[in-house]
Amino acid sequence: MNRAFDIGIESLAATTSSGAGPAPSCAPEPARRGAPAAKSFYIETFGCQMNDHDSEKVAGVLLGRGYRPAETPADADLLLYNTCSIREKAAQKVFSRLGDFKAAARDRGKVVGVLGCVAQQEGEEIFERAPWVSLVCGSASYRRLPELVAQIESGGRRVTGLDLDTDETFETELTRRDNPIRAYLTIIEGCDYSCAYCVVPRTRGPERSRSSASILGEVRRLAGAGYTEIQLLGQTVNSYRDPSARGLNFAGLLVAVAAVPGIRRVRFTTSHPSDFTREIIEAIDATPALCDHIHLPVQSGSTRILRSMRRTYTRQAYLDKISWIRAARRPISITSDVIVGFPGETEADFEETLTLLDAAQFDGVFSFKFSPRPNTPAQHMDSTISEVEQGRRLAVLQEHQRQIQLARNQKLVGSEHEVLVDSHHAARNQWAGRTSGNRIVNFTSPHLSLLGEYIQARVVRAGPNSLVGEHVS
Ligand code: 5AD
Ligand code: SF4
Predict the structure, then answer these.
(1) Residues 6 or more apart from 381 whose CB is under 8 A from it?
(2) Contact 441, 459 (CB under 8 A)
(3) Nearest CA to 113 among 121, 91, 105, 65?
(4) Is the CB of 236 under 6 A from ligand 2?
(5) pLDDT given at position 38
(6) CB atoms within 10 A of CB 137
(7) Cα gap 333→464, rounded to integer Å
(8) Helices 387-410 and 347-360 sit at what angle, rounded to 10 degrees?
């Protein structure tokens, strides 16, 4: 994903509001005549939803300091690049993209900063390879951003925020909301697991949960601004432990968030299978506002490979949790992540992943070829699988899963679902939205303004990745 911020999203959210409470506006004040023009910023974001939301908070910090958002990188005084290093390809892009900023930094005095996982991983090495960069800051140091930006404003070069050993979370007074329909909210940062392939514990630092009072305060403000759907974020979101005296666990927090007046849908991602409890399913069963969707990465269907990946559960333990979810009173969609071609993965191990897909019946799978990452235990493991064989396994897995999804979606033809409308294709007058189970439904409607509305749709056709519906009411 490579996306810039749009302007005025927060005010769009307010138009979907039921009218309760004022919308906290992050939109900059129009420049007063005669006043010096405020400095402008542009953030380019790669990677996961956590990165997207981090960028929303970083933008909030800058808006709070009087910066205004620029429409394009060329218009910005401060260019920030929020990076991802989860797989090699994403990390490789960073230096070539930084190369694009070189002339602007040298000739037009733009300040360039690198944020996120590559910043943490490469550290000051970035200044050596791209000397036009002035700021390198990993996500565990974002709470220091005002101080770091102040250093830059007073002419500082080679400014760094690279501390990892922290017990603090990044909370901002302002958050620039990019998505007018769904509001993201980080409840837990970092990760205390140590999966053999993964850079996250080294780029985002140790796990730290935010207090329930702070989370619930933000949810109330979002509801007041008109948001009805909240997505709680964390690398291992269900490892959440309220650090305050209230001591909520994740299931307790879910119920408390869902009880905030105005909130109609609560999503959460990503769950770790080892911390996935029956209590979470009981909470979903008892609370209609908790969405019928769980993203539960399995990574492999072979216990031998799971052990080598240090995933802390077996195939059977994972499938037991799937059975709990399937026994819930309402149908819950389950999606997952899978890595193929982990070092030592035999054809038999891979077959076990395919049979796990059959057993689990996922509604969506993000699948990846194993990519060796710096400073991870899997980086130098023996018995690597060739790129060609990884590609073959990935294609086989994706086709296998496509058939599963097609069959599952076709069973939905004729059923009705509540859809929160989140996009419109004007030329085709086609609308799209998501069900509580996170399925995409495309439909046409004579209505002119449905964005942010909840409608009922009947499924008339089904593909592997989306449904076609008709607008019922
Ligand atoms: N190689 C391939 N895929 C990876 N993921 C994380 N690290 C790697 C890696 N080194 C995948 C996992 C994770 C998702 C976010 O990215 O499946 O769940
Ligand atoms: Fe990475 Fe494993 Fe932590 Fe997920 S649980 S962020 S895969 S170390």
Answers:
(1) 196, 308, 343, 344
(2) yes
(3) 105
(4) yes
(5) 58
(6) 25
(7) 14
(8) 20
What's the one-letter identity of residue 458?
R
CA 169 to CA 54: how far, in whole Å? 11
Block residue for tokens 């050596």: 128
DSSP conformational letter for 206: S
Q: Lowest-confidence range among 14-18, 106-110, 256-260?
A: 14-18
Mutating to test ligand 1, I would choose from 50, 86, 298 the residue with most ligand atoms within 8 A of its C-beta, which is: 86
> Average of pLDDT values for 153-170?
91
Residue found under tokens 């070189």: 102
Measured in angstroms, how far is the CA atom of residue 187 from the centroid of ligand 2? 16
pLDDT in tens, 319-371: 999 999 999 999 999 999 999 999 999 999 999 999 999 999 999 999 999 99
* Cα-only R_g, the chain: 23
Ligand 2 atom 2 nearest Cα: 195
Out of 51, 87, 272, mutate this one to test ligand 2's pocket (max ligand atoms within 8 Å of CB): namely 272
Give the residue ranges of DSSP H helices in 143-299: 145-153, 200-204, 212-224, 250-258, 278-286
What number of residues does the chain have? 473
User: What single string gives the DSSP state of each residue in 318-333?
Assistant: HHHHHHHHHTSSS--E
* Cα(262)–Cα(180) distance, integer angstroms: 15
Q: Structure tokens of 157?
A: 């070069």
- Greater model confidence, 387 or 24: 387
CA of 200 to the centre of ligand 2 (A): 6
Q: How far apart are CA 90 and CA 133, in angstroms?
A: 19
245-277 burial by CB neighbour count: b if 16+ within 10 A, else e? eeebbbbbbbbbbbebebbbbbbbbbbbbbbbe
